[in-house]
Here is the input.
Amino acid sequence: MRSARPLDLHLTLDRLGRGPYDPTFRRTASGDLWRTTRMPSGPAACRLVQAGPRDVVAHAWGPGADEALDALPDLLGERDDDAGFVPPPQLRDVHRRATGLRVPRTGRVLEALVPAILEQRVQAVAAWRSWAWLLRRHGERAPGPAGEAGMLVVPDAAGWAGVPTWDWHRANVDPGRARTVVAAARVARRLEECGAVLDAAGAEAAHARLRVVPGVGVWTAAEVAQRALGDADAVSVGDFHLAKAVGWALVGERVDDERMLELLAPYAPHRYRVVRLLEVSGRARAPRRGPRLSIQDHRRN
Here is the structure.
């Protein structure tokens, strides 16, 4: 794919991976990016290579390969429009250097929703371990070379709905999060329509549909919208670190969610774009003031 504007493959897609051992997402030493997905037509595995400042070469395998290639422009943020965006002064140099950063749109809502639910109220590393364990147990071998390298494809909605109680426990997922995943899987068809809802009625309507699922709140809906819907304005309100990091970067002090939204308000509809620039800058966390939280193990309860 050749774009008319700068495109950085890794800056655009890196947040789709869930930790260093995510069996659906892999970056090789040579810089190639491998990703698996489940399209409506079936599983697909894609190899993406940055071939120039505006060029990405893609290869795909599996029943969903053609559909995955057709969706490549959305995945690489071709619909992401940053016209009129002026970054905060503190992030202007980062914005200048990260010209190829875009907000992707995978179009696969359940794929983004399940790991976001697993990340609710726990440390990211614990959620990533749960995600990898569940995929090893209930995922499907990826088609083509990706499968030969050990990569997996996420279960379909029926597969998630059918995960037995004891496997949630063995994956260190508490009953509340497990019930939310199952509830989402049971209405997956309606959730996959969120992209069309966003296009027709706006982001607020799409977020509202996601939040109909019991256990899916503002934070989870935003995490999904950032990845599956290409929503450049979705702010993860309620994140343990985000408000403090935004406050520290923009005004030099820790703030709460309400104050964070005030600070980001001038940048709408690009508030998430500001957050991504903050992440890329390496300043996405305020200095620590206390000990690290211990990782909870629900299997002992």
The chain has a mean pLDDT of 95.
